[in-house]
Amino acid sequence: MRRSSSLALPALAVAALTLAGCSSASSEATSESGVPLIAEGKLTVCTNPPYEPFEFKEGDQIVGLDIDIVQEVANDLGVDLALVETGFDGIQSGAALNAGSCDLVASGITITEEREGKLDFSDPYFDANQGLLVPAGSSLDSLESLAGVTVGVQQATTGETFAADNGLTSVQFEDLGLQIQALKNGQVEAIINDIAVLGPYVNDSFVIGTQFETGEQYGLGVKTGNTALLDAVNGTLERIATDGTYDEIYARWITPAAS
Ligand code: ARG
After folding, report:
1. Is the CB of 109 under 6 A from ligand 1?
2. What number does the ligand 1 atom closest to the CA of 55 have?
3. Top-level class of domain 5-125+219-258
4. Distance (Å) of CA 90 to CA 7, 33, 251
5. Over the stretch 51-75, which tens digit does the pLDDT of each residue have?
6. The model's pTM
7. Do the domains at 5-125+219-258 and 129-215 have one common CATH topology?
């Protein structure tokens, strides 16, 4: 269930090589607009698929709402976008940013007070609540109904915190794909994750048992103190909110039933 997140290592190796190739330690890579970046000519972003519709694979490409938004940030910086698949724990804890694996984290990350202490968040770009996905025909449809039930949660997420805060018995999975698999094979009777990512799994076999109004908001994250990049990210978020790009991106990925 808990794999070590070895996925971040290749990125570290690449970052180390890039630094070794520099003529002096101070010649940091920068974008056209002067924002410091870990690798020349690209904005490197850590993300944790599968998390449809925010980040998930189509063939071998990672696509989704978060990806379209960070592509806009890269466009504004005048650089390419490079994505690094990373375990969510390393993303939300600031570890991936502090290790130099990426410039930015984009992963449907809820802005929380605890995380504010570990990384710096952009302005919010998406509203979220938690939801319960259960097999069709299940009687699980409220917090009370979950007494004595083992619920599957995603490790290091606000869903995990929600389950703990409400005294639920839970088992952790490293990503949403493994949560869904556990529900399919009957290892757990229900799973909790953000409501928008449960929508894509609603079919003949699974239904939304209930929604929990947690009032969360997603932000993009930079390493603590990286104000140059944070200002650029907020600038892009403001631009796409006013020029209609955000609405286009939203409409492309969010169906009314999944929101
Ligand atoms: N919004 C939740 C949180 O921040 C879950 C995010 C999980 N994201 C992902 N790409 N797996 O804790």
Report:
1. yes
2. 10
3. alpha beta
4. 10, 28, 30
5. 999 999 999 999 999 999 999 999 9
6. 0.88
7. yes
| Best probe residue, ligand 1, of 46, 194, 195, 220 (max atoms within 8 Å of C-beta) | 194
Q: Ligand 1 centroid vs 110 CA: distance in angstroms?
A: 7
- State yes or no: pLDDT of 156 exceeds 60: yes
C-alpha 38/C-alpha 46 separation (Å) is 12
Q: How confident is the model over 182-210, as a mean pLDDT?
A: 96
Any idea which residue has 């609405």 for tokens? 247
**Nearest-CA residue for atom 12 of ligand 1:** 157
Query: Which pLDDT does position 87 carry in this prediction?
Result: 97
Domain residue spans in the chain?
A: 5-125+219-258, 129-215
| Choices 3.40.190.10, 3.40.50.920, 3.40.50.1980, 3.40.630.10: CATH for 129-215 | 3.40.190.10
For residue 109, which of 258, 221, 29, 4 has the smallest C-alpha distance? 221
